[in-house]
Specification:
181 residues, alpha+beta, five-stranded antiparallel β-sheet, 39% strand, globular
Length: 181
């Protein structure tokens, strides 16, 4: 079994800017800089033959390079129930279009449709019952965060390997985004 997701790698300069945010929330488990990315579709555990079919269908996606920007911070969950701290991605019709193509490919490969609304973001930290006032202060103090614009020229099929120190994300296949497609 392989644990997979489809995502976008970020430029080193953007990762460095994000990494500077990763402190100041007690109890937060900060994302390692090398694991920072934008998820297009979480796949989960699949057999190798299904992974090959997913790869084949993703390889057939035609889309143009993306110009993206990050802006603002937020959480999934609220107050003491917040579980994920993230940096947002500025609205991008091209990103939404690529996401729809990736979702379609995954469904054609036999995966169930994603039930959650696509909210593009970069996960900064996972949390378990954070102190709501400290978390809110952190978000308010950093909510003007912005990075970009930057260009993304490929998306990737990543494998998520679980280990003692947490997950490590390894790009398995990269798919080019080609101008004029």
């Amino acid at each position: 079994m392989l644990r997979l997701f489809v995502g976008l790698s970020l430029p080193d300069g953007v990762i460095a800017r994000l990494a500077m945010l990763c402190a100041g929330v007690p109890g937060a488990k900060w994302t390692a800089p090398e694991n920072m990315h934008i998820t297009l579709r979480f796949i989960g555990e699949v057999e190798e033959d299904q992974a090959e079919e997913i790869d084949h269908l993703l390889a057939g996606i035609e889309a143009e390079p993306l110009t993206l920007a990050l802006m603002g911070l937020g959480t999934f969950g609220e107050g003491a129930k917040a579980h994920t701290l993230w940096a947002g991605v500025a609205p991008s019709p091209a990103l939404a279009h690529l996401h729809a193509k990736v979702e379609s490919a995954c469904v054609r490969a036999g995966l169930a449709p994603e039930g959650r609304k696509f909210t593009p973001h970069v996960t900064l930290a996972r949390m378990n019952h954070p102190h709501p006032t400290r978390l809110q202060s952190f978000i308010q103090g950093n909510n003007l965060f912005a990075a970009g614009p930057f260009t993304i020229e490929h998306f990737a099929l990543f494998e998520s390997k679980l280990g003692k120190g947490g997950a490590v994300y390894i790009p398995q296949v990269e798919y080019s985004l080609v101008p004029g497609t």
